[in-house]
Amino acid sequence: xxxxSTLGLCVTLVxxxxxxxxxxxxxxxxAQVSKNFQTPSYSPYAGRNxxxxxxxxxxxxxxxxxxxxxxxxxxxxxxxxxxxxxGEEITSAGGLRVKLxxxxxxxxxxxxxxAYGAMIEVYxxxxxxxxxxxxxxxxxxxxxxxEQSFAAVMEMIQGVADKSIPSILLExxxxxxxxxxxxxxxxxxxxxxxxxxxxGYEWSxxxxxxxLHRVVIMRDAADKxxxxxxxxxxxxxxxxxxxxxxxxxxxxxxGSILAIPHNGNLSSGxxxxxxxxxxxxxxxxxxxxxxxxxPLYEVTQIKGDGEAHPVLSPTDEFADYETWDLxxxxxxxxxxxxxxxxxxxxSALKRGLKFEDRLGAxxxxxxxxxxxxxxxSLATAAEENFFGKHSGKEPxxxxxxxxIFDFNxxxxxxxxxxxxxxxxxxxxxxxxxxxxxxxxxKETYATTGSRMTVRFFGGWDFVPExxxxxxxxxxxxxxxxxxxxxxxxxxxxxxPTFLVAALKDPYNGNLDRIQIVKGWLDKDGQTQExxxxxxxxxxxxxxxxxxxxxxxxGNTVNVKKATWTNSIGAPELITVWKDPDxxxxxxxxxxxxxxxxxxxxxTAYDAFRFGxxxxxxxxxxxxxxxxxxxxxxxxGN
Amino acid sequence: xxxxxxxxxxxxxLLGAGLFAASSFLSTRDELPRDAIVVSAGKIEHLSALYERxxxxxxxxxxxxxxINDFIREEAAYREGMAFGLDRDDTIIRRRIRQKLDxxxxxxxxxxxxxxxxxxxxxxxxxxxxRVDPRLTFRQVYLNPDQHGESIEADARDLLSTLGGDAAxxxxxxxxxxxxxxxxxxxxxxEVASLFGEQFAIAIVELDPGSWEGPIESGYxxxxxxxxxxxxxxxxxxxxxxxxVRREWEHVRRLEMTEAFYREMLDRxxxxxxxxxxxxxxxxS
Lengths: 637, 285
Prior knowledge:
The complex is a heterodimer. Chain A has helices at residues 9-13, 30-35, 67-71, 78-85, 118-124, 133-144, 146-161, 172-189, 222-225, 239-253, 284-293, 345-359, 432-440, 472-479, 602-610; strands spanning 53-61, 90-91, 97-98, 106-109, 196-203, 214-218, 257-261, 296-301, 304-305, 367-370, 403-407, 410-413, 422-427, 444-447, 453-459, 480-482, 497-503, 511-521, 527-536, 572-578, 588-596, 599-600, 621-622, 625-628, 631-633. By secondary structure, chain A is α+β, with helices and mostly antiparallel strands. Chain A has 2 domains: 54-440, no CATH class; 451-633, no CATH class. Chain B is an alpha+beta fold. Chain B folds into 3 domains: 2-27 and 37-89, no CATH class; 98-131 and 236-279; 133-231, Chitinase A, domain 3 (Roll). The radius of gyration of chain B is 35 Å and the shape is elongated. At the A-B interface, helix 2, helix 6, helix 7 and strand 17 of A face helix 2, helix 4, helix 7, helix 8 and helix 9 of B.
């Protein structure tokens, strides 16, 4: 049996700067010592009631309950998925032993509500289903395995899209029994303070193949969750109906629930559309409802990164990151540039300002998280331990060169999968309640799989000395609002200031730079954007050029051996930044983007471990990043 | 594709073999006692219920008769088909039967309710799964490799000697700043590992409390560490972890039952694996 080594490698690589070998026990006096260190300006400890820990998790993981995951060969159940996420070694669908480099803090098993668990029944040959000729045919194909199994799943995905799926698969009775069992499993693995297991599922609406999917997360235990059965796209494909159902859930159970959309990049511009699902203009009520139920957006995942697109942000040299822009979800509609503003988070945030100006409410005032959307029951987002989108894409020598999607003669190849991402949540404790509440207030950020620590505060009177603080969060909360917040009313004649800090993932690459992305609505009612480099590593060596661009950080990646060194970049970056172009009359948002030094992409690890040579179209390095939730400025607030 | 071509061919061959077997079988059939196909009252109720589930009404008398006749044919065809070994090379039937057995094994495992004694014994025999992490109260002073470069180790030693053995010294303003705390109170080793990396956690849990030690390497750089207090790992009482123990007990039980099930089954067989002759030509190339 093949073995995939999990971590090890990068641990030994981290911190290549070690002593020169000569130990000098000579004593130095204190003046000498203090000369070697910066002196701090601030250090209170007591009475801190804000989040001091960031928790990492995956809010979007599929198991065998999802029809497509099961059809792709994933027989690994939710229980194993939970065990894996909390750090245990399990066996993947393909028979590989697999373990995370370190446990996750929380997990949402988010299986498709559509025909929830029905594929298991099809596979098991439930006699009540076998009267349907289509189901019977799928049964045969699933058991034949391989290509036939794949074909059955492709048919099923399209059956869900064009509503031709046999109605017997939607029997509420089946769905209820599987959902009830599942909520029980989740409760058993929820250990407050140790590991949080959320009740949840995915509402998978994609009319015409345009992705409008939402992951639905509950704050509650099984006793409340099982009072309902998941609202599915068969009930309605309209997000507004999902919100009504969510309201009904809260009314019925007294619980709390939220939804997180994802993959606007596969929506043909409909994710952040300027119209409602039915084609009506957006209203204030729509904007309020949307933000009541959908405080967050899943901005990065295996099916592409959705922060920015190079066509929308041509001067942003980091905008083209793991971009998927061939077409919509089933490739039935090809991408055109006019769709892009309705697909990417940055443009949606800008659109939101425009709507707020017009309607008095912002429909796209969301925070950001990342997650995997993996269909393998394995929440893997690390480059050196990436188990792919579905069970047909577990580590093999040729997975890079096989299509991951194959519709209408068009293909997306295995190498295009992004080993991304995770949700980072600043919460006061690792519990359902604390994490959920933090998501509600958007005190979150997205990472592409790295676990860097990022703080971002906005206020009116941060000063450069605050960046020298030993406890930036103390200053941050005292003088400003954290990520996801609104700037306090403007004092006369001020410009907003931001305290931003990032600490590297101890297992990953050093940090290249922190940027602040600003979007605003100008006096002509047009939206604008600008990316500012605010702090970076090796500042003595790296100065912005005449074009204002900061030189690249460099690259230590040895692609052949899939290694790198942390001899460039910095373990930590922190600064206070004041907006130099502020106009008090302009609505604006600000978010931080943290960029790591280049490290090997998962494809480089595959090429090295399997000894294969990949085509020149395949990227071999990556610069992992984090996107924080924005902080908004509203004139007259 | 290969499989698609192969299977009908296989079926064709089997069918041929089957017909041959059938003719020889039928010719001697008169001498054999006739097997009975009994359609019991319970079976008839079951057929009726299945019908009702699909059509939302009970079958008419005529329909029921049809169902019974169909069942008799199905039963006969099933027995004869099995006797001909038609199931043997059919992947679908083989997998389905195996799956049924697996489900039975799992169901049996789920039926058993663990006693307190069993749970206590499980806890005792699997202490590592339930051991409460060591907890540490410690202080750390950080050295940033970016700011010290080659001299980082020497600088760390300088600082260590400055701190000396004085546990009371306030070191919160020494070293380089980092977005981690200077002092951590009563945190589990697991938390330390998630904050500083696993190797750091393993290293500091071994340190003697009461003096500044180091430098110790983490993913960020070097640290000097003072352990103020350590609560060693301990084995919890059953009452503290009953739910977890039960969950693990059930999990292991399920795996064991399946394993035992197969072991017992396989014990009744002599297993012969005939590896293909190694192809020397291929190995040489």
